[in-house]
């Protein structure tokens, strides 16, 4: 076997020296505060049985899509599911992609055009930033949730030939590492005032916000003011795939020009049926969604009572992040929590900026109040009495 490239090996060695070398997580039997399976759909026997019943009833027996959706991969199951998603989210159309990464890269690589300007929150996740880098448009980040900074960038003089409606503002409704939310109503106001197009990633809002888990945008009644929404199914729905919501014209653009859509095999019937079944259960799992919200409230109350509030980024979502500076420090506390039976993961630099290392707690409908209280009590002990 040929030698591995020295430059890459050097970078790996540097990560190891900085306690930042990461490895693929192995399955465990710990109490789950790590997965994004907010509603427990991935482990639901009822949802699995409903999906199988649907496939058998409709005689979908294929194990794979067998091709792109321009060839053989676009069965009627796709149309039924996309129509259901569009109705659920009160939008004209939904277009399914194989993953959140495919959806965001597919969008940004084709929709913003040369001469356009993309203004994105500095904490937008890596797939959004990858897509923006592939765009022909110019791009500039604004300070996290800082709309004065955003407006100053919008007002920066541009060539007179530039169309002012060619500015795209990009944010997440729940930021994946901090768990906080932007003031979407203010972002809509800014977008309207300056004739911008607002793009919102709702990956971590689906299943968490809204009476039926529709997301943060619909909870605020802003769906008609958003140019495009990106949803992923890997989190609250516990299945594979993603969708972009928007107008008929946006769908036509993506179908015809997005290479991440055109030149890849579609999701299997099994995966698409899982998406449809997951959405059907969102409509009737309001008690499960309500329990998740109760757990979020309980988590916030407990951390405040234990004097841990100053460690945490303000969040009313299912993502709660405690900032513990230093890869070694945060890894040590994560390991202690794991030894006590709780699966809490450390997020290390350079995944997050140096000095912003953190424990990322993911809350679920199936976490008990007792589990939440115990894991926070342990965190309090490890923070305030590190010798124990």
From TrEMBL:
GO BP terms, alphabetized: biotin biosynthetic process
Any Pfam family: Aminotran_1_2
GO terms of molecular function: pyridoxal phosphate binding; transferase activity
Protein's UniProt name: 8-amino-7-oxononanoate synthase
Protein family per UniProt: Belongs to the class-II pyridoxal-phosphate-dependent aminotransferase family. BioF subfamily.
Domain Aminotransferase class I/classII large: 29-377
Key words of the record: Pyridoxal phosphate, Transferase
UniProt xrefs under InterPro entries: Aminotransferase_I/II_large, AON_synthase_class-II, PyrdxlP-dep_Trfase, PyrdxlP-dep_Trfase_major, PyrdxlP-dep_Trfase_small
Provenance organism: Flavobacterium degerlachei
Cofactor: pyridoxal 5'-phosphate
Top-level taxon of the source organism: Bacteria
């Amino acid at each position: 076997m040929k030698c591995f490239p020295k430059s890459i090996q050097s970078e790996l060695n540097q990560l190891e020296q900085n306690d930042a070398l990461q490895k693929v997580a192995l399955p465990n039997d710990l109490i789950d505060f790590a997965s994004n399976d907010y509603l427990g759909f991935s482990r639901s026997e009822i949802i699995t049985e409903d999906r199988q019943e649907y496939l058998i009833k409709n005689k979908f027996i294929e194990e794979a899509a067998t091709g792109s959706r321009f060839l053989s991969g676009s069965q009627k199951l796709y149309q039924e599911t996309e129509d259901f998603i569009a109705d659920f989210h009160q939008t004209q159309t939904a277009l399914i992609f194989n993953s959140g990464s495919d959806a965001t890269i597919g969008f940004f690589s084709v929709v913003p055009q040369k001469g356009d300007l993309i203004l994105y929150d500095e904490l937008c996740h890596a797939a959004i930033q990858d897509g923006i880098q592939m765009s022909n448009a110019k791009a500039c980040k604004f300070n996290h949730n800082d709309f004065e900074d955003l407006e100053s960038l919008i007002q920066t003089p541009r060539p007179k030939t530039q169309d002012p409606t060619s500015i795209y503002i990009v944010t997440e409704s729940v930021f994946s590492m901090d768990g906080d939310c932007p003031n979407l109503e203010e972002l809509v106001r800014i977008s309207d005032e300056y004739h911008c197009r607002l793009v919102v990633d709702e990956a971590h809002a689906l299943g968490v916000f809204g009476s039926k888990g529709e997301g943060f945008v619909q909870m605020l009644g802003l769906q008609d003011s958003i140019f495009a929404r990106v949803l992923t199914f890997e989190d609250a729905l516990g299945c594979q795939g993603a969708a972009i919501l928007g107008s008929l014209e946006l769908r036509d653009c993506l179908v015809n020009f997005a290479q991440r859509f055109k030149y890849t095999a579609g999701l299997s019937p099994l995966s698409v049926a899982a998406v449809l079944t997951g959405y059907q259960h969102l409509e009737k799992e309001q008690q499960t969604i309500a329990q998740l919200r109760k757990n979020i409230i309980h988590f916030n109350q407990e951390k405040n009572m234990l004097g841990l509030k100053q460690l945490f980024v303000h969040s009313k979502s299912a993502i709660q992040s405690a900032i513990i500076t230093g890869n070694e420090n945060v890894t040590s506390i994560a390991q202690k929590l794991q030894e006590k039976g709780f699966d809490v993961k450390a997020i290390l630099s350079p995944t997050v900026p140096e000095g912003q290392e953190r424990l990322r707690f993911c809350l679920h409908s199936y976490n008990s109040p007792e589990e939440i209280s115990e894991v926070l009590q342990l965190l309090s002990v490890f923070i305030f009495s590190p010798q124990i």
